[in-house]
Amino acid sequence: MAIQRTFSIIKPDATKRNLTGQIVAKFEEAGLRIVASKRIQLTLAQAQQFYGVHSERPFFDELCEFMISEPIVVQVLEGEDAIAKNREVMGATNPEDAAPGTIRKEFALSIGENSVHGSDAPETAAEEIAFFFSGLELVG
Ligand code: RTP
Ligand code: MG
């Protein structure tokens, strides 16, 4: 498997509880390298655009309001098989279903306030990275 990049968000429930460092440590322990990182606060329009694929889902409004409720940390993670590896470290969407030791098992509050986002495929990773970062900000 080649070296890949994936896009990650440390979500408001986690930044609010001061868990950024503990979550980054999980990525690094799994062999993922942080090649870009910034703390930002989304506008509602930005959250709606980012989660546009979910616009018809019943949880869309709640999700967007949650994502703008506090600052978030957006990052690009690089490593061997990074997309799958990151999703493994995150654990299942619903913390009740997440495996022991995963970020969501240890830190998530609910299926919505689940501490992290990670891209689900190479195409979405490329789109999501480009949404938040310019080429100059990616330092491999
Ligand atoms: P993510 O995109 O954030 O990495 O998470 P995921 O692939 O595991 O989950 P996805 O199905 O893409 O859903 C995106 C985010 O929407 C929120 N959600 N809320 N209330 C609900 O039933 C519900 N379902 C999903 C979560 O914050 C989820 O991560
Ligand atoms: Mg998803």
Brief summary:
The protein is 39% helix and 20% strand. It has 140 residues and is of the alpha+beta class.
Share of residues in strands: 15-25%
Helix content: 25-40%
Distance from first to last alpha carbon: 18 Å
CATH hierarchy, class: Alpha Beta
Radius of gyration: 14 Å
**What sequence of helices (H) and strands (E) makes up the elements?**
EHHEHHEHHEH
Q: Cofactors and ligands present?
A: ribavirin triphosphate, magnesium ion
Q: What is the count of helical runs?
A: 7
Strand order of the largest sheet: 2-3-1-4
CATH-scheme architecture: 2-Layer Sandwich
- What is the CATH third-level topology name? Alpha-Beta Plaits
Total count of strands: 4
Could you give a short account of the major beta sheet? 4 strands, antiparallel
The number of distinct structural domains comes to 1
Task: Estimate the global geometry from the Cα principal axes.
Answer: globular
- Mean pLDDT metric: 97
Q: Which secondary-structure class do the elements indicate?
A: alpha+beta
Low-confidence region ranges: none
* CATH superfamily membership: Nucleoside diphosphate kinase-like domain
